[in-house]
Design brief:
The complex is a heterodimer of chains A (209) and B (622).
Chain A (H helix, E strand, L loop, with lengths): L15 H27 L15 E2 L6 E2 L5 H26 L3 H32 L7 H32 L9 H26 L2
Antiparallel strand pairs in A: 1-2
Helix pairs in contact in A: 1-4, 1-5, 2-3, 2-5, 3-4, 4-5
Chain B lengths: L1 H13 L6 H5 L4 H30 L9 H35 L8 H20 L27 H29 L12 H32 L13 H35 L6 H15 L14 H13 L1 H15 L8 H22 L3 H7 L3 H31 L5 H27 L16 H30 L38 H8 L23 H17 L1 H4 L1 H19 L16
The chains are: A mainly alpha (209), B mainly alpha (622).
Chain lengths: 209, 622
């Protein structure tokens, strides 16, 4: 009787593990809300320190010199698009897992992992690029709050990628049967959450003037 | 595969109670974890009390040099931090652990190993926080760690780091526990126990978990930013680098005010269990009690800046936060009148738990009244940072939480340990505590209004604070005596026979229907609930008191296996923060090792044998 996940003897009929992931996500919302607030409070502080490193094009009123923004929107847009597509990919992977279509599950799960890895790589490139230009964690509060916000998001993506790779290995070993697809569903919920947070961070940090 | 796993569990359950140190280290039983929480928290409570005694000795006379200013700073910081994070919160957690599954008719919490993990992280966090004493560098900046006193410039030592890292570790514990109990209450209730039939302690604990889930991440971010300031050279809270110390205050109190309700809501719940049982009446105004609790929690997120009136936020913010703060008096008043309504016309049994619960109501009202006083910004700017504030929060946290937790201890002791605490010693404990408490904290209202500042290691003789301070110190020693009586009571009871019947108080809730102490599987048969006071209803149906229940053999009941991976994972969590503190010596290697321990723990936890499908204990009958 017990291998079938649909026989659930809980008060709500939901699996407790799924409920726990949702609860955790609710808590994480406050974590990122705090980090985003911290960024919004400090985003104008790019002048302090030897800077300046504007996050948008800026004309120095004294000299008339135009400073180019340090942030590179095109690169990050590609990363964002891949992360968003990966949310679709993992839905397809889960669909495959729930219906026992092994190829579909492995293929889309692999695509999700590649997208996640690309996003992390993009961020590593962006961070090194900024440091080369002189914008470090210590340089000014814009840098400090930018690196903490996007850095903690990046850490979440990295943990998600590790989780998904673990799922991929389970799937390869044939352990992600339809009855056990909840394992993948939990990882997918977390992955969607990390994407949704980025949907807020991307306009707040990169698009809004 | 699943059948063999089930068979193992059958054998395991039928073996009965296991003993020995290893069985405690690997336990995932919510009752044992509850006892571990209680014992550890009581130890830290006594430590925090000792710190308070030293503070009172120092303040007994003017211009005293019993303590150095540095030692005094460390003692009041550690007293406050310990009492909040290492005493009141985990003492509540003891009752969450032991009582929530019993009260909702479950065999365990939703995630037994996560529960063990929460305890081990709590223990390590508590030790971390106190480790500063070993290096002569205990935290010394006050429990709310105001910036920029916490900057490298003004606190060059490791004192602040022990506090910061210790609280980070404790936050992980609270969040893990909150997820666990939130899911447990939603998903593990007995058949027929709808949300509006849950015992009030479960309701208040449930609201507390929501507060923990939403408030602790904010503290985590504040502590992370402080950590970046101190270790990685950022300037979030350093004015010289463009930072704003007030930002810390906002972050801290957005966490800190809900924290106040995290400390007191479980106590509201305990009192709401004790009063009906010893008044022989159902709780008055059940729905109003539930919704006033929800309302208090909701408002708790909109009042944080009343801790900051003295910073000059301007009339608009002052008005908003003043009004929202005064609003909280309404649902709190609803609760107090409902408790009185519960006792009104009841057949009151004067047992020790009832003494402490009535004491709670009286003392909490005094603390609530002074709270409404400094909800008014002009009054608050006078009272801020004086002993008046110290008097206020001790009336709500000691007069409130500690009285209620003690009430809960006397009430549930027979269920937890199978032994009834001595009534005469219990009542002596109550009277000593009530007198000692008021002697210690009531005079603080007066010295506070007369201008005695808190957190100052001594005062000059000509200010005339001496007489009242001597009274306070005498009161502190009466409190010491009160808890000595409690310890004597515990030891005396421990040596006595297991004399407690299953239902010593004629209880209303499910835990009294099973033997004292409960068997490992709690309920031989899964209970079915038909009302708000299920055990009273059962007794009424069957015409009075029931014979002693049989624990059953436990055969066929699935229970989770013991596991040591929660402990290893907890060590990994604590090691990460220790590694950050030592990063200037070890470089990144310390952090790499710590993260490896964490991953080792997590992966072995996730893939542990016998847990492949069942992460939650079975609910069904046989």
């Amino acid at each position: 009787m017990s291998d079938h996940a649909e026989v659930l003897d809980t008060s709500t009929g939901l699996d407790s593990r799924k409920l726990a992931i949702w609860t955790f996500i609710g808590s994480e919302c406050m974590f990122f809300a705090s980090l985003i607030s911290n960024y919004l409070v400090h985003k104008e502080q790019w002048m302090s320190g030897p800077g300046p490193f504007p996050h948008e094009a800026w004309t120095d009123p004294a000299t008339g010199k135009v400073l180019e923004p340090i942030i590179e929107v095109p690169l990050v847009t590609v990363g964002t698009a891949l992360l968003l597509f990966s949310s679709l990919f993992i839905v397809l992977a889960l669909y495959g897992a729930q219906r026992g279509r092994r190829g579909m599950m492995l293929g889309w799960l692999g695509a999700t992992i590649v997208c996640g890895l690309f996003f992390v790589g993009m961020q590593v490139y962006e961070f090194t690029h900024f440091v080369h230009k002189g914008l470090t964690l210590q340089r000014n509060l814009f840098g400090a709050s930018f690196f903490t916000l996007t850095g903690f998001h990046g850490t979440h993506v990295t943990i998600g990628v590790i989780w998904l790779i673990t799922m991929f290995i389970l799937a390869l070993r044939g352990q992600l049967t339809p009855e056990r697809s909840l394992k993948l569903e939990m990882a997918a919920l977390y992955w969607h959450f990390v994407d949704v947070v980025w949907i807020i961070i991307f306009p707040v940090v990169y698009l809004i003037k | 595969m699943a059948t063999t796993v089930l068979d193992q569990h059958r054998v395991h359950a039928a073996h009965g109670e296991k003993t020995g140190l290893w069985s405690w280290i690997t336990t995932v039983d919510h009752k044992r974890i509850g006892v571990l929480y209680g014992a550890t928290a009581f130890f830290f409570f006594l430590l925090g009390g000792l710190e308070a005694l030293l503070i009172r000795i120092q303040l007994a006379k003017p211009d005293n040099d019993f303590l150095s200013p540095e030692a005094y700073n460390q003692l009041f910081t550690m007293h406050g931090t310990s009492m909040i994070f290492l005493a009141v919160m985990p003492l509540s957690a003891m009752f969450f652990n032991y009582m929530i599954p019993l009260l909702i008719g479950a065999r365990d919490v939703a995630f037994p190993r996560l529960n063990a993990f929460s305890y081990w992280v709590f223990l390590l966090g508590g030790l971390f926080l106190n480790a500063g004493f070993l290096f002569g560098a205990a935290p010394d900046q006050g429990w709310y760690g105001y910036a920029n006193l916490t900057s490298r410039q003004f606190s060059p030592g490791a004192n602040v780091d022990f506090w910061n890292m210790g609280l980070q570790v404790l936050g992980v514990s609270s969040l893990a526990a909150a997820v666990n109990f939130f899911v447990t209450v939603i998903n593990m209730r007995a058949k027929g126990m709808t949300m509006m039939r849950m015992p009030m302690f479960v309701w208040m604990s449930f609201i507390t978990q929501v507060l923990l889930l939403l408030a602790f991440p904010v503290l985590a971010v504040a502590l992370i930013l402080l950590m970046f300031d101190r270790f990685f050279g950022t300037n979030f809270f350093v004015p010289a680098g463009g930072g704003d110390p007030l930002l810390w205050q906002h972050f801290f109190w957005i966490f800190g005010h809900p924290e106040v309700y995290i400390l007191v809501l479980p106590s509201f719940g305990i009192v709401s269990e004790v009063l009906p049982v010893f008044s022989r009446k159902p709780l008055f105004g059940y729905a109003a009690m539930v919704f006033s609790g929800v309302f208090i929690a909701f408002l708790g997120f909109g009042v944080w800046a009343h801790h900051m009136f003295a910073t000059g936020m301007g009339p608009f913010a002052d008005t908003f936060f003043s009004l929202s703060t005064m609003l909280i008096a309404i649902p709190t008043g609803v609760k107090i009148f409902n408790w009185l309504g519960t006792m009104w016309g009841g057949s009151i049994q004067y047992k020790t738990p009832m003494y402490f619960s009535i004491g709670f109501i009286a003392m909490f009202i005094i603390g609530g009244l002074s709270g409404v006083m400094h909800a008014s910004p002009p009054a608050d700017t006078q009272q801020n940072d004086t002993y008046f504030i110290v008097a206020h929060f001790h009336y709500v946290l000691f007069g409130g939480s500690i009285f209620a937790l003690t009430s809960g201890a006397y009430y549930w002791w027979p269920k937890m340990f199978g032994r009834l605490l001595d009534e005469r010693l219990g009542k002596l404990h109550f009277w000593l505590m009530l007198i000692g408490f008021n002697l210690t904290f009531f005079p603080m209202h007066f010295v506070g209004l007369n201008g005695m500042p808190r957190r100052t290691w001594t005062y000059p003789a000509e200010l005339g604070f001496e007489a009242l301070n001597q009274l306070e110190t005498a009161g502190a020693f009466v409190l010491f005596l009160a808890f000595s009586v409690f310890l004597v009571n515990i030891v005396k009871t421990w040596r006595g026979p297991r004399n407690a019947p299953a239902d010593p108080w004629n209880g209303a809730t499910l835990e009294w229907a099973i033997p004292s102490p409960p068997p490992e599987w709690n309920f031989a048969e899964a209970p079915v609930v038909q009302g708000r006071d299920p055990f009273w209803e059962t007794k009424r149906e069957r015409g009075g008191r029931l014979p002693e229940p049989s624990p059953g053999t436990g055969a066929g009941i699935h229970l989770p296996n013991p596991s040591y991976w929660p402990l290893i994972t907890a060590v990994g969590v604590a090691a990460i923060f220790a590694a950050i503190m030592l990063s200037h010596k070890t470089g990144p290697w310390g952090i790499i090792v710590a993260v490896s321990i964490l991953f080792l723990g997590v992966f072995n936890w996730v893939f542990e044998k016998g847990y492949s499908e069942f992460t939650t204990p079975a609910q069904g009958g046989h």
